[in-house]
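Attaching the record inline, Q. Sequence:
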Amino acid sequence: MSRRGTLDVVVSGAGVVGAAAALALARDGFEVALVEPREPPPWRADAPDLRVYAFAPDNAALLDELGVWRAVRTARAQPYRAMRVWDAAGGGALVFDADAFGRRELGWIVEHALLVDRLWAALPAAGVRLHCPERVAGLEQDEDGVALRLDGGGTLRARLALAADGAESPLRESAGIASARHDYGQRGLVAYVHHAAPHAATCRQRFLPGGPLAFLPFAGDAAGLGGDGHVSSIVWTLPEAEAQRLLQSEDAAFLGELERAAGGCLGAMRGVSARAAFPLRRQLAREAATGRVAVIGDAAHVVHPLAGQGVNLGLRDVAALRRALARAGDPGASSRLARWARARRSENAVAAYAFDGLNRLFSNDAPLPTLLRGHALGLVGKWPPLTHALWRRAAGV
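Structure, as predicted:
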């Protein structure tokens, strides 16, 4: 492969994880190109994105290092100071509390569109070469580098290619990396709701036989939804048929079922947004890298949303890759990439199967697990060292 015009890194996919990877590696001195089929619409404060993340402290620190986090927080990021998890079948609650951990907050609720908007705004100054609208149409690689053929007719040559182009990643497929996939037969229904009781900067998750129902506190006033602490984003895991039925229900019927599913924890509710639903699955790439192609974010792993770790795991891929490539002359050198790939594949597999196990345990009404699981949550919640350890694991600190 000719070395003429060779970049250090080409990233395919400019969502949160891909844009963060391109920005991070460019800031570290690599020559980086970013390929994306569609320019994202500008984030609008008065049109909140239905897709939100429970953003962990380690990833906030990563974006802070990249000069982006302040812009995100200034625009809109709702801190949460507590998290309460319980089972509708009874038993105690598992509670995480910022005061008990000596922190101002446990994390932040942030919109997907806002993160993408602020990351894209930072790309030009970092020197990232943006190819948009373009998509990767083919891949060739040898010992020295990769050549990515673009559908517009051009070719990008680099020492390393990163597939950050989603769960159906064309670049991952072109590299010959297979994925193991399991469909849950569930959908995650999302919306914003106003509730009578204040959210008190607390994330709530109630396990139900069909799947967990989560309420994530949101800055409703800033989004024009009203509320002053009375608006939350919901993520309701439901069997496929139930999700479709509730999507098509009249507002009054939907809200009535939502209030019952919440067990009255936030009082009467009214809808303040549209509803949407997305299919849920577990998917893991068989390898995190092959040759000079590495997979990150959803291209590498898709996990159940019950623990809110999807984008957090993806950004940890980026942070770990950044450490692995520090001071590297050749970012695609096999030894560095192989060590990174083994560590990330292992960590992401542990997380994916742990969330899978929790979903199987709590999303059913079999007598034995129903009798045991709520009490188990309560027991864990009564042992502060274990509670703190669980939170530290989720927070990446």
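The two ends are 42 Å apart (CA to CA). The chain is about 35% helix and 30% strand.

More tomorrow.
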